[in-house]
């Protein structure tokens, strides 16, 4: 199903052959193009005739099974008029040279070669952000882990989006790169309207929410928790915006957000110490406090952080730097001093 | 090795009934739920001793079973222990070790040491391989100085300058990691502990209600029960309840006199001694 989760798909939806449910499933009464042939063309590989795969027809209760290589497809073509709602796969292929950016997949499509996201591979850890006097400040570390290995140590997990927003992501890094591509498309096509208006953080947050939620509904989520912050001139002056979306589509707007471990370790500090109109210097101190706690207590964080801020002047992503950690407690020196030999 | 040899009891957890329990569960027996103390417990070492803190909520699944329970248990006059995990386990294990410490004090004639309590606790918990679900923060001051330890359900321990346990441990740890330093005064220590517990109370669903604090120094222990009450009842009438006469309309009155009849048995059997 061509759900509009990318701008190009959205435009394609309104084309003449747009809605094509029959591409995968037959009609509910069992008629329609042969499943075998359709699945062949979608999967892109010839089906082995001996194998009876559980086709959607089984699930829908029709009594047609297996592959009719002669069968109905031949019959449809013989009819001479092309069924617009269920065009035979050869005609379909002629019309659509470009594949959709996001392959429509669903849990019913068990023969689709593309497997659904089961687990993340390369992951980034927490991102924290909060509003301050001039805009929004966002920070995270620059590490990406591959399971329990710290594979990449110079990864930028905060990026600017247009002139008004910053996006920070934790979770699967490749999905974050994909999201950045979608946002590129979005901002580019918005720019091409050339109407003097540009997408603000609220709009981008709304767009991301739709993308994430639609992907989740197809059981193929983008495995990220995204933080979206920005400032844009609104009817009431400069309006600061900060929101979060996670991989299942939960989204909200808040004065301070954190993803991953930041939820447990940074949010208590922010709840106690954040206040309206905090200055930039205080904000950096508060951010560093939270980042230090995350460094101590989150196993996948590294001591290399990036702070980014967005104001009416635009986004600024500062170069990475390290924080000084303190290990000089006297109790760490000889924990067994009270009882030599104990553990 | 012929014949049946009567081996001495090996000690340790007896897993004989586990198969039977599994069979019963498979046949549909619903085990009774247990009272957990989804909790925030903390401890820190300050310049004169140790401060322990705990919240006061005991949960049974999603329900608050006890909204003002005591999680700081007495071990010895100079040693106290906060407990997280299953309430019964923490109570029983701290009670048991407390009695053992008392007997040891009678035997040796000396003040108990914190590592004695620690070793008793960890050997017991290790024997039970984590089935005794007690996560403890043990603190006290003895002749060797102030000590603070954490004990995990499987029997491992840590010796730390500041420690947190329980479901709210991350929230409390974030407060400690950002504000702890060595050589705190008593007031600073109590304030930091209270702030950490409050972070747990307001940021963790398993913790709530009030803050208990216990300050242990050389020769003196102060148990500040309900040191802070940050969750007062929102709408409490200051006047209390008053039921004045005439507020309820009397529809009808019926008085039934009960006849008093007392029988005295003469010469009954004397009570058995």
Automatic annotation (TrEMBL), chain A:
Pfam families: Proteasome
GO annotations of cellular component type: nucleus; proteasome core complex
Annotated signal sequence range: none
Primary localization class, coarse: nucleus
Alphabetized UniProt keyword annotations: Cytoplasm, Nucleus, Proteasome
InterPro entries: Ntn_hydrolases_N (IPR029055), Proteasome_alpha (IPR050115), Proteasome_beta4 (IPR016295), Proteasome_bsu_CS (IPR016050), Proteasome_sua/b (IPR001353), Proteasome_suB-type (IPR023333)
Superkingdom of the source species: Eukaryota
Subcellular location: Nucleus
Record's protein name: Proteasome subunit beta
Species this protein is from: Miscanthus lutarioriparius
Classification of source organism: Eukaryota, Viridiplantae, Streptophyta, Embryophyta, Tracheophyta
UniProtKB/TrEMBL annotation, chain B:
InterPro entries xrefs: Ntn_hydrolases_N (IPR029055), Pept_T1A_subB (IPR000243), Proteasome_bsu_CS (IPR016050), Proteasome_sua/b (IPR001353), Proteasome_suB-type (IPR023333)
Keywords on record: Cytoplasm, Hydrolase, Nucleus, Protease, Proteasome, Threonine protease
Function: Component of the proteasome, a multicatalytic proteinase complex which is characterized by its ability to cleave peptides with Arg, Phe, Tyr, Leu, and Glu adjacent to the leaving group at neutral or slightly basic pH. The proteasome has an ATP-dependent proteolytic activity.
Compartment(s) where it occurs, according to its Swiss-Prot or TrEMBL record: Cytoplasm; Nucleus
Matching Pfam families: Proteasome
Main subcellular location: cytoplasm
Top-level taxonomy: Eukaryota, Viridiplantae, Streptophyta, Embryophyta, Tracheophyta
Subunit structure: Component of the proteasome complex. The 26S proteasome consists of a 20S proteasome core and two 19S regulatory subunits. The 20S proteasome core is composed of 28 subunits that are arranged in four stacked rings, resulting in a barrel-shaped structure. The two end rings are each formed by seven alpha subunits, and the two central rings are each formed by seven beta subunits. The catalytic chamber with the active sites is on the inside of the barrel.
Molecular-function GO terms, alphabetical: threonine-type endopeptidase activity
Catalytic activity: Cleavage of peptide bonds with very broad specificity
GO cellular component, one term: nucleus
Keyword RNA-binding: no
GO biological process: proteolysis involved in protein catabolic process
Residues at the catalytic site: 39
PROSITE patterns the UniProt entry points to: PROTEASOME_BETA_1, PROTEASOME_BETA_2
Gene3D superfamilies noted in UniProt: Glutamine Phosphoribosylpyrophosphate, subunit 1, domain 1
Homology family: Belongs to the peptidase T1B family.
Name used for this protein in its record: Proteasome subunit beta
């Amino acid at each position: 199903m061509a759900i509009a989760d990318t701008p190009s798909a959205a435009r394609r939806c309104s084309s003449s052959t747009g809605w094509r449910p029959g591409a995968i499933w037959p009609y509910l009464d069992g008629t329609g193009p042969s499943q075998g042939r359709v699945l062949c063309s979608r999967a892109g590989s010839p089906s082995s005739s001996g194998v009876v795969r559980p086709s959607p027809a089984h699930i829908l209760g029709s009594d047609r099974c297996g592959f009719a290589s002669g069968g109905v497809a031949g019959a449809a073509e013989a009819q001479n008029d092309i069924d617009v709602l269920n065009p035979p796969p050869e005609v379909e292929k002629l019309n659509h040279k470009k594949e959709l950016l996001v392959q429509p997949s669903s849990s019913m499509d068990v023969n689709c070669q593309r497997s659904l996201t089961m687990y993340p591979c390369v992951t980034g850890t927490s991102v924290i952000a909060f509003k301050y006097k001039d805009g929004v400040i966002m920070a995270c570390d620059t590490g990406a882990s591959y399971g329990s290995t710290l594979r990449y140590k110079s990864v930028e997990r905060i990026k600017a989006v247009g002139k008004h927003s910053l996006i920070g992501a934790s979770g699967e890094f490749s999905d974050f790169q994909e999201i950045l591509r979608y946002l590129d498309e979005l901002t580019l096509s918005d720019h091409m309207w050339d109407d003097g208006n540009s997408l603000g953080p609220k709009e981008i947050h709304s767009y991301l929410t739709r993308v994430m939620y639609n992907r989740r509904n197809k059981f193929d989520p983008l495995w990220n928790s995204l933080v979206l912050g920005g400032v844009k001139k609104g009817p009431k002056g400069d309006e600061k915006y900060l929101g979060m979306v996670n991989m299942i589509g939960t989204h909200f707007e808040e004065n301070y957000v954190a993803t991953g471990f930041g939820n447990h370790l940074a949010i208590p500090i922010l709840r106690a110490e954040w206040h309206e109109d905090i200055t930039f210097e205080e904000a950096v101190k508060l951010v560093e406090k939270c980042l230090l706690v995350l460094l101590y207590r989150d196993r996948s964080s590294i001591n290399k952080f990036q702070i980014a801020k967005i104001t009416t002047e635009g986004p600024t992503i500062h170069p990475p730097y390290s924080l000084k950690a303190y290990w000089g407690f006297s109790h760490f020196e000889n924990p067994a001093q009270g009882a030599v030999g104990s553990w | 090795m012929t014949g049946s040899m009567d081996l001495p009891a090996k000690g340790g957890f007896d897993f004989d009934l586990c198969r039977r329990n599994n069979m019963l569960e498979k046949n549909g027996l619903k085990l009774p739920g247990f009272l957990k103390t989804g909790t925030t417990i903390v401890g820190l070492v300050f310049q004169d001793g140790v401060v322990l803190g705990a919240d006061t909520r005991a949960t049974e699944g999603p329900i608050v079973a006890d909204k003002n329970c005591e999680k700081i248990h007495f071990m010895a006059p100079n040693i106290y222990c906060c407990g997280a995990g299953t309430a019964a386990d923490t109570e029983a294990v701290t009670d048991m070790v407390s009695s053992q410490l008392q007997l040891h004090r009678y035997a040796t004639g000396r003040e108990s040491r914190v590592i004695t309590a620690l070793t008793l606790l960890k050997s017991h918990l290790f024997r039970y391989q984590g089935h005794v679900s007690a996560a403890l923060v043990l603190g006290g001051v003895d002749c060797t100085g102030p000590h603070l330890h954490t004990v995990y359900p499987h029997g491992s321990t840590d010796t730390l300058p500041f420690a947190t346990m329980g479901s709210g441990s991350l929230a409390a740890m974030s407060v400690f990691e950002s504000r702890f330093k060595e050589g705190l005064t008593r007031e600073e220590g109590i304030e930091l502990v209270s702030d950490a517990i409050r972070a747990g109370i307001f940021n963790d669903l398993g913790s709530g209600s009030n803050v208990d604090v216990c300050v242990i120094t050389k020769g003196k222990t102060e148990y500040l029960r309900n040191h802070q009450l940050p969750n007062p009842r929102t709408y409490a009438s200051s006047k209390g309840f008053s039921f004045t006469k005439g507020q309820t309309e009397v529809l009808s009155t019926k008085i039934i006199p009960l006849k008093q009849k007392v029988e005295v048995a003469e010469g009954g059997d004397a009570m058995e001694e």
